[in-house]
């Protein structure tokens, strides 16, 4: 990352942490333990890749920062809830997330389950109670978009396919189908929601952004699979080698390390090509694509 981009990322991350602290229920409000668990699951962790993508797309679309803040928070709350649930014993049964004990280990399984539920519903509450676009129909489309990205035809559906695929060999199209839903859908939603907060882009341009999101969402997962094999637990902030231990199909198990790296580079290239028409206005999105694919890679 060059200095200007590093400064942009650091400023947005710091700003967004304050946004989340304001939008989450205070820990002194009843039920206190649930609100504490919600804040524990969301605050002080992660690179905030999805919010950063929303901010970059919002800048491209000429959106007001306060509007993108809310849209980015909604996406991050969905992401955080999914991590809480994914880490539970009935799913991936993990003990470490973002360098600290998982929510069900820090609290208990019932509290973690409820915290995830509450984070999910808070995301839609935020989209409903804040004005994010001057056109009510476009704002309603934002709610629909996040719901689709989160549900059975998005992230939750991808996780169901993932659980059903343990111990099986998937073809590349099957693996891509799973991750377009499990990982890619929310990344695409983050970009589109950020752009929907503005009014500068036409429908065809939104389609190009969506295509960029699809490609970079897949690249994100391919790189994750490589890092799961090559990085250590301290670097990842979560248990390394978990996919191999659980006999899950990954891009590495299918293509090998070098094949997975090559695929990530190809997706990265195609993602950048999809932004060509935007010129310099899409520079932050290009830099984020670089960041996603080149992190410790």
Which CATH C-level class is it?
Mainly Alpha
Principal-axis shape:
globular
Order of helices and strands: HHHHEEHHHHHHHHHH
Kindly give the count of domains: 1
CATH T-level fold name: Farnesyl Diphosphate Synthase
Count of beta strands: 2
Helicity range of the residues? Answer: over 70%
Largest beta-sheet details: 2 strands, antiparallel
What's the helix count?
Answer: 14
Structural class: mainly alpha
Strand order of the largest sheet: 1-2
* CATH homologous superfamily grouping: Farnesyl Diphosphate Synthase
Relative strand content: under 5%
Distance between the termini: 13 Å
CATH architecture: Orthogonal Bundle
What Rg, in angstroms, do the CA atoms define? 18 Å
Low-confidence stretches: none
């Amino acid at each position: 990352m060059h200095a200007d981009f590093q400064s942009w990322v650091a400023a947005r991350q710091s700003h967004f942490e304050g946004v989340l602290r304001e939008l989450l229920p205070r820990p002194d409000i009843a039920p206190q333990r649930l609100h504490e668990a919600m804040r524990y699951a969301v605050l002080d962790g992660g690179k905030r890749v999805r919010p950063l993508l929303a901010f970059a797309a919002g800048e491209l679309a000429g959106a007001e920062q306060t509007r993108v803040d809310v849209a980015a928070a909604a996406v991050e709350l969905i992401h955080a809830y999914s991590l809480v649930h994914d880490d539970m014993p009935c799913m991936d049964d993990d003990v470490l997330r973002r360098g600290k004990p998982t929510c069900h280990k820090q609290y208990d399984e019932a509290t973690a389950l409820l915290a995830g539920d509450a984070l999910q519903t808070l995301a839609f509450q935020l989209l409903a109670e804040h004005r994010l676009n001057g056109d009510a129909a476009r704002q309603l489309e934002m709610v629909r978009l996040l719901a689709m990205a989160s549900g059975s035809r998005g992230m939750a559906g991808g996780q169901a396919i993932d659980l059903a695929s343990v111990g099986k060999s998937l073809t590349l199209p099957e693996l891509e189908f799973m991750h377009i839903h499990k990982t890619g859908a929310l990344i695409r939603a983050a970009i589109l929601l950020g752009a929907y907060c503005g009014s500068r882009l036409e429908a065809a341009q939104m389609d190009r952004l969506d295509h960029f999101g699809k490609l970079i969402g897949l690249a994100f997962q391919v790189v994750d699979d490589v890092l799961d094999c090559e990085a250590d637990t301290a670097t990842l902030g979560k248990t390394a080698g978990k996919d191999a231990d659980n006999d899950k199909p990954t891009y590495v198990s299918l293509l090998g390390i070098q094949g997975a790296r090559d695929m990530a580079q190809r997706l990265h290239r195609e993602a950048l090509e999809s932004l060509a028409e935007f010129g310099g206005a899409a520079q932050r999105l290009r830099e984020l694509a670089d960041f996603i694919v080149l992190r410790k890679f």
